[in-house]
Amino acid sequence: MSDPRDFSPPGEFRSALQTGVGQRVPHESATRHVTGAAQYVDDRLEFPNQLHVYARLADRPHARILRIDTTPCYSVPGVAIVITSADVPGELDIGPVLPGDPLLAEGVVQYVGQPVLAVAADSLDAAREAAALAVIDYEDLEPLLDVEEALRRQQFVTPSHRQQRGDAEAALANAPHRLSGRLRCGGQEHFYLETQVCAVLPGEDGGMLVYSSTQNPTEIQKLVAGVLGVAMHKVEVDTRRMGGGFGGKETQAAGPACLCAVIARLTGRPTKMRLPRREDMLMTGKRHPFLYDYDVGFDGDGRLHGVRLELAADCGYSPDLSNAIVDRAMFHADNAYYLGDAHVTGHRCRTNRASNTAFRGFGGPQGMLIIEEIMERIARHLGLDPLAVRKRNYYGGDARNVTHYHQTVEHNLLAELTAELEASCEYAGRRSAIRAFNAASPVLKKGLALTPVKFGISFTSSFLNQAGALLHVYTDGSLHLNHGGTEMGQGLNTKVAQVVAEVFQVEIERIQISATNTAKVPNTSPTAASSGADLNGKAAQAAALTIRQRLVEFAARHWQVPEEAIEFAAGRVRIGEQDIGFAELAEAAHLGQVSLSATGYYRTPKIHYDREQARGRPFYYYAFGVACSEVLVDTLTGEYRLLRADILHDVGASLNPAIDIGQVEGGFVQGMGWLTCEELVWDAKGRLLTAGPSTYKIPTAGDVPADLRVKLVEHRRNPEDTVFHSKAVGEPPFMLAISVWCAIKDAVASVADYRQHADLDAPATPERVLWAVERMKKQNP
Amino acid sequence: MIQFLLNREPCRIERLDPNLTVLRWLRERRGRTGSKEGCASGDCGACTVVVGERLVDETGAERLRYRAINACIALLSSLHGKQLLTVEDLQQGDHLHSVQQAMVDCHGSQCGFCTPGFVMSLFALSKNAAGFDREEACAALSGNLCRCTGYRPILAAAEQALGQAQADSFAARETEILAQLAAIAAQDAPQLDDGAARCLLPRDLAELADLYAANPQARLLAGGTDLALEITQQHRRLPLLIQLGQVAELQTMRIEEATLDIGAAVPLTDCAPVLAADYPDFGALLARFAATQIRNQATLGGNLGNASPIGDGAPLLLALGASLLLRQGARQRLLPLEDFFLDYRVTALQPGEFIERILVPRPQPGHHFRAFKVTKRLDDDISAVCAAVHLHLDGGLVREARIAFGGMAAIPKRASQCEQALIGRPWAESAVERAASALEQDFSPLDDLRASRAYRLRVAQNLLRKTWLELSQPDLPTRVTDHV
Q1: Can you state the angle between helices A427-440 and A414-424, rounded to 10 degrees?
Q2: Which residues of A fall within a CB distance of 8 Å from B86?
Q3: Is the pTM of this model over 0.90?
Q4: Would you tell me which CATH number, out of the four given (3.30.365.10, 3.20.20.100, 3.60.20.40, 3.40.50.1370), belongs to the domain A413-457+620-781?
């Protein structure tokens, strides 16, 4: 196996590099974060004539708009303009892939929280006050507020789709054991700490400079150009950093940006829109809730023979990204397991709710949840430990390594990781100890579960798997880098800078990464699908290698040495017998008329997928992980606590172990929130009742166990040719939290001595847990 | 005019809307954008700032006490006579403060938006804690939400920063700051007025009583953690406020032989240890009552006067048989707490009347007190059910039972049928079961976003059963919160 860094020959200075690839480099903005100096869009200095935009949201789930009277709004001092759908100069629809998302409702409102009109005023207070004065007459239409009802009525935002291998019906019919059932999981609010925000500065010639907190600057550029009816080159989008994204700013940042742009165009004034938390939660989409129906056949050892899965997602009122999200749920309905003959069908149900959207895992977590439910159910049915059933169903050798979408599972680490974690977390010993504890403890019960994650890496829309970068070397040896990815806290800029630092063997202090900007790197893909470092790291590496090669060729010419005699090390360059600073070389190359600026480009190899046939290789590789969680459940109230979690996660050869650990821990806790305390509640009129942090509860520090043992897998670099053989890390750890949900189910099952599976929908709120306990007691008196 | 210090800079504010929050003042008027708005409701902590206050102890020694608060729901008038510190103030030249350095070293920030708030909570913790204790750190951070890190590295930063206590520039300047604050305290008749809205800051109890009697339409501003939500969430503008922060008499506590006598404006942070000493369950519950930033502002009197059906103070104090000393002008009256709550957010207070003190009976032999708070999230969440059980057991009989609940009715309320099912009976499982059944006559709770009616009722019954188990088998593990 070749050294992934083999372009950079090992030298004595190599180890001196402190901030190269594989080092625990702090986040590039860490010091600015802790001093309050890091600027977010809302922190930008305001222009004296800047307008603040506030949207009036629909207060009913489905209604025809009979009349809008905005004249009363103008009675409020400071109001500059009020706009409705009729005022949008260009395209009204801002749907990202498929149409269906009007910037402002036209004719009909389709969810509580849909923007109907927008007011711009000197202050947010004035804009809000004025927006409330507008008169909107509605005629109510029948709303569709339940995914089950939508499924029954075949109300879909896009057609249903199936992936299949073999004859599932026959396998089910012939299997020695068969179980069927239903499960529901809830959605999840992103709760990025920084709400959606955008500031727009109108320029000359119809141009717009857009400061947006977005994961997808190119799409903001495209949509802003669309609503204005101008070419994309008139619009420049700039994203320095987001205060959290998690998928919530992949498409949902477009509304505020487009409203600002339209108003900036109509008034000629700088414009800002920052959503108050409540409006953000009402207006923007969330993780899709799912309804699952399953039918599985298996043998006496618990091995699956056949599976029929129906996944129905609550997409809300429009397609947004739901087609790809439900596809990814289907791609992950196997998680780590060979399903046997399988039919996996995904339905995209339309309801009168905010349009559900990307959220870390992008459907993957919802897909995995159902197969983990099935593993638990089989185990209880057969009286086996769920871990034993899981291991028996893992993808294995030749006959058992092809997924239901016909991709071969290669380089599978799960057997190895499971064995390692099972030993290090003392699963067997703790299993016995927990049984003993439970036998002696009538009120509090402990539960334990070890669950795997196998997550496919690549955008399943294959064309998105490309990236660009732009690198300049200045004559003082400093470097300026741009790439197409956005920084939302995940440390992407730090990792990409480390990649470039590694190529030139300079410390990253020399490398300035400035805001992601559509004028610097065009036609970018969203920073999503965990792909940020994989794609942009490679693109930046390509740009760096281009310049490095020019420098090598120049130096060989200039100093009359062979290219092999040139070595970059520790901020210096050895050229034959002499040793000069990197800056000196840059200066000399410039005087020698060598271009010190280059673009880099990368596209992911090997992937292909034929959706018609539901067959191909959508994923370049898989990332793996295992987690074991132990919980304590109060059988009188349903309250619980995570006592300990052990995690072993695969990031290939880590670009930055500190940042990767941060992604693993953060993803795990966020996933735990989804499955436990985070509950979205709507009333019968389609109004979200949990529209703020007083009612929607994300985990706090106290929910994280003192005993949290997180390890990255060592010495397992990615066999594929990824950037320094690392693996993507943003999303996969999220699903390690399924172990927490399964551990709660384990504790509930202990009430009936593990003879019966605990029926427990997600999120497992104390209320759901208590009812699961009570059902268990009633059925096993 | 009100006066305070912004770090070392004296600020005198003459004309300003008293509805303006500290956060908006910082960001919009002072260009200090380090403190962030994440919710404007005191739930996320991204706006956390630290307030330094002059404190004189029993020996007459002066010191500065630093406390974290939520700037998003603190009104500017609450700063009068105090020092305000924001994240911009911590760094000294090129040197990060030790809590900032620890956050960098431990990779405690990712997106960075919540980070200034965490830094300020950690700074306050470093000023108040003697060394690192994980549980104490979690409590100090329970009002700070982070969506990126999963908190582990932030707790590691707390451990690093608190493990190596160092004197910082704030310690060095304490005398100077105390002198500046003392000078402000001598000033007369502070108020804030922009012509349309006014906030008055009476300096003693008599002045407060007169002002309120003369202006019964005014809103009393104690900690303001609920009142400010009318401004930041319901977008109301309150025309007349009376701020209680300068009334020293309302801030005192007296531990008497039979009674804990607590001034109505004592922050929850300060009354917690006193209540916990007598009633450990009261202390445990207060540790989960909102979050540190809120408890530093919110007052016990405010929690009662607010009369929320889901306020946690009331059921516990009802069960303990607390009473209120009310005042209207010069007139005082004593009212049992159970006569205070009349209907949903309606109390027995007359116009211009306010709660002056809260009187809590002290424990007696044979009395047992248990309190429970059931929520979706253990920390900083509002109770689905809050239960308090106070029993006097004597010779195997229940002599007296006071059992009260929050979240079960439109007001915090005693469960009289349930109590009757126990009083005079042997303390036995059968009696507990009858009492549990009686709860169905006492309450008809609501379905809402926190819990269903059925769950509330079942949990209420089960908490009674849990009380039985805890009293009859003291070694039995019964609470997930006891396991760390």
Answers
A1: 50
A2: 36
A3: yes
A4: 3.30.365.10
